Write the structure tokens for this entry.
Amino acid sequence: MSEKQHSHDLPFWRKYIFSLDHKVIGIQYGITGLLFLFFGFCLMMLMRWQLAYPGQPLPVIGNLFSERMMVGGIMLPEFYNQLGAMHGTIMVFLGVVPLAVGGFGNYLVPLQIGAPDMAFPKLNMMSYWVYFLGGVAMIASFFLPEGAAQSGWTSYPPLANIAASGQTVWLIGMVFLITSSLLGSINFIVTIVQLRAEGLSFFRLPFFVWAQFVTSFLLLLAFPPLEAAGVLQLMDRLAGTSFFMPSGLVVAGKALEVSGGGNPLLWQHLFWFLAHPEVYVLILPAMGIVAEVFATNTRKPIYGYKSMVCSVIFLGFMSFIVWAHHMFLTGMSAKMSSFFQITTMIISIPSVILLTALALSLWGGSIRFSTPMLFAIAFLPMFGIGGLTGLPLGLAASDIHLHDTYYVIGHFHYVVAPGTIFALFAGVYHWYPKVTGRKMSEILGKIHFFLSIVLINGVFMPMFILGLAGVSRRLYDQMQFAHAQPTQPLNVFMSVCAWLLGLAQIPFIINIFGSLIWGKKVDNNPWEATTLEWAAPSPPPHGNFDAVPEVYRGPYEYSVPGQKHDFWPQNMAKEN
Amino acid sequence: MSDNGIRYISKPHPVTGVTNSKLGIWCFLASEVMLFGGLFSAYVLLRASAPSWPHGSDLLNVPLATLNTLVLITSSVTMVMAWASLALKDFSKYKRYMAATILLALVFLAVKSVEYAHKFEHHHFPSTNTFYAIYFTLTGLHGLHVLGGVVVNTYFLFPGSALWKKDPEQFKGRIECAGLYWHFVDLVWIFLFPVLYLL
């Protein structure tokens, strides 16, 4: 690694642990995010045993769990609920967002805009460590006497208010995570507005930077209401207030001793005011990655770059006024639900523009079917299925049947798992050479891709059938319900697919570590790409660029007629 | 300072016209607006759905709160004067105004704690009813923001002011950002006071 300036004289802990360099922090975020993704996936694989074989002892590892979790290897309902709540929380707040925004965003945004670092390096470091503490709090809550939070990732009161102490730790953990993304989002906005290289106007920014820019605004403005909600729920749990406790609440045959007068719907409004924009926090960076991978691997400009940018901005605005489509069943008035149905239908327009522009970008390209490109192409139909299955949920009439069933689970998992996570895999394979200076193995990458794409559809596609059959998303044992019994064989199928999907990640794990040793060494620009990060050495030194880059053109000047090469880097003054 | 090559730390960006920190503090304040906005909307929803809602002036001490309002507004004025003194390159005057700002903030917190103690004496707790719940939550969170301001301003009064000798432009920028935050805390109280005490 070629080190410049003063980074070589820093001690180990300053250089790799409490580092101020956006690249090191990006890698820290990335590794932590991947580990949490794997951990969250393990929780789900445990749940899938109970779902496939309800009430049967978990073989081999069942006895390793304590008496509060499994008795004789048979999972307790309380533990099942903990797994469910923590799977959702960990995947969203500790896995995908930190990887997509903290990892890819931190590493790439300064490089793609030609900046030496983020605008506030110390805030950046703090953001990571606050996130880390939040993660530690979440994991530690499993070791509480009554276990982790078990009220779902949505933590609806009044149940969450009266739940065991794990919920308090969950709330405190969330306050850490919210603070972390607040610090991060301020940093991104300021960096992108202030530190762009000479000549890099907003409409010359790579689409990935635009996606991160809009995402940062969503994090900045949507998270604080959840922090408010978290404070209120903490007050309810610790100070005995009744923000979310209605009067006359009876639990297990006993009237609760609270003052009452609160409103459980208040939580839902505040929660979904965050959690709907959060959906776009999950998806926009993924779209940014797909756009970059597409342009590089089709050797042509992204189709409709400006309409994509306008769509992503409009999407950001709209995402703040659709939240109550998660609440059609709360007895809201017809006027309210009409409003939110209309906004929900409107927000599908920019989403479709984005997806269509990406699909049209493939048209007429000389496509390189490299591993990152395969994952990125797979993103289109997977995200498409996720998006289209969302339409019936956005309309109150059909949502009444589908609400809180496995259909919803299938819908948002198609968006996030084979959608966003596949795009993140594409990003890992695409930028690994930049980060490490070596390429990942194509053979292992393709094994990883083809196994994953088949198996992940095996996990999520049957969920639509279960949901249409009316199976609720939170059942511990669906065999106890006559209407759900006929679909039980599908649960076995889904579980087997999920466990095999777990195994299918082994090639990826081998690849990511092994390529450090045996991967082919690369120069600055192994993919012959145009954006600024490829002008920096691989891996980039402290301060990123050998010379301060200047920008002369848009981000995707591929196959320009009259040029000798089929790519024309943004920072190249002369013809290429 | 910018040994890592980051630009616009003490000089504003020629196009946006602001330094990095100033843009950053405005972003932060935007998120704070959303935080208090969320809590205010909680207040509105609780009050709208309650069968009866007490008059704040019947339960809370309006004269003390009026005094506190004046104290906080005055502290905003001294904060501006502190920044203006730096613009006039009068460092000792800055120190006096900054000290006055911190002192006034402490007076505010002292009055607030007298109010709290009074409520607790009469067995009025957050758990008493939703009015007291939202009163204690909103004023408590605002109090924490005041305390945060005291910590930051004290830092800039003592150890942080060493920057004045090294880079006066950057130090002035920092005081301006601290001032923006302080005015925001003031502004929140300007909303809290009528909503909780008068309406």
